[in-house]
Amino acid sequence: MSEAPEAPPRRSRGRPRNSPDLRDSILDQAELVFAEAGYNGASTRDIAERAGVAQGLIRYYFGTKRDLFDEVFRRRGGDISRHRHALLDALLADPVKPTVRAIIHAYLLPQWEMKYSGPGGAAFVRLQARLHSEPEEHAMRLRREVYDSSVRRYVDALADVLPHLPCDTISIRMAFMVGTYMFMLNDLGRLGDMTEGHVSDLGKDPMLQHLVTFLAAGVSAS
């Protein structure tokens, strides 16, 4: 007489199977909601509805709304930071010392590619801009956690090719650079007004090249 097939192990009630796809779906929808409404205006109920999951799953996977927001920021912010590290590694591996333009281009490129990578990437760029209106202490901690290691490496790289400038001066100009590119990246400029309607949208690559030219001159100035 043949044995009966072994029954599959039973899962405990209330604990969903760990699903990377489901987790990513929640993060994708949270990214869009946070970008549209900001942290204070977003609700986990709305995020759950958009993701097609029970609201309790958000608590199960991420905990609080703040924890979810942080994870959304870390996901793509971490991609940008890793990309910056990789581009700088490639520049520094070349026996020829990189130019200021090359270093600044490498720093800006991951943000530019993120914005044009699709709805999620564009939403993340808007979310970054909104982070400046969030509680300062938390926003600063999150930015430091995600970006500071790559920023410090770029400051060091610029200091190496600009030995006539104190490192503190380069750090200050790096802060100016971040403010400038974030402003333009979020389409907050007045190109149409400033050019009397002749230019309204430069496009991805021309805008980046103009910014690199402008910022390289400012960072390098004696």
UniProtKB/TrEMBL annotation:
<dbReference type="InterPro" id="IPR036271">
    <property type="entry name" value="Tet_transcr_reg_TetR-rel_C_sf"/>
</dbReference>
<dbReference type="InterPro" id="IPR001647">
    <property type="entry name" value="HTH_TetR"/>
</dbReference>
<dbReference type="GO" id="GO:0000976">
    <property type="term" value="F:transcription cis-regulatory region binding"/>
</dbReference>
<keyword id="KW-0238">DNA-binding</keyword>
<dbReference type="InterPro" id="IPR023772">
    <property type="entry name" value="DNA-bd_HTH_TetR-type_CS"/>
</dbReference>
<keyword id="KW-0804">Transcription</keyword>
<dbReference type="Pfam" id="PF00440">
    <property type="entry name" value="TetR_N"/>
</dbReference>
<dbReference type="InterPro" id="IPR050109">
    <property type="entry name" value="HTH-type_TetR-like_transc_reg"/>
</dbReference>
<feature type="region of interest" description="Disordered">
    <location>
        <begin position="1"/>
        <end position="22"/>
    </location>
</feature>
<feature type="DNA-binding region" description="H-T-H motif">
    <location>
        <begin position="43"/>
        <end position="62"/>
    </location>
</feature>
<protein>
    <submittedName>
        <fullName>TetR family transcriptional regulator</fullName>
    </submittedName>
</protein>
<feature type="domain" description="HTH tetR-type">
    <location>
        <begin position="20"/>
        <end position="80"/>
    </location>
</feature>
<keyword id="KW-0805">Transcription regulation</keyword>
<dbReference type="GO" id="GO:0003700">
    <property type="term" value="F:DNA-binding transcription factor activity"/>
</dbReference>
<dbReference type="InterPro" id="IPR041586">
    <property type="entry name" value="PsrA_TetR_C"/>
</dbReference>
<dbReference type="InterPro" id="IPR009057">
    <property type="entry name" value="Homeodomain-like_sf"/>
</dbReference>
<dbReference type="Pfam" id="PF17939">
    <property type="entry name" value="TetR_C_30"/>
</dbReference>
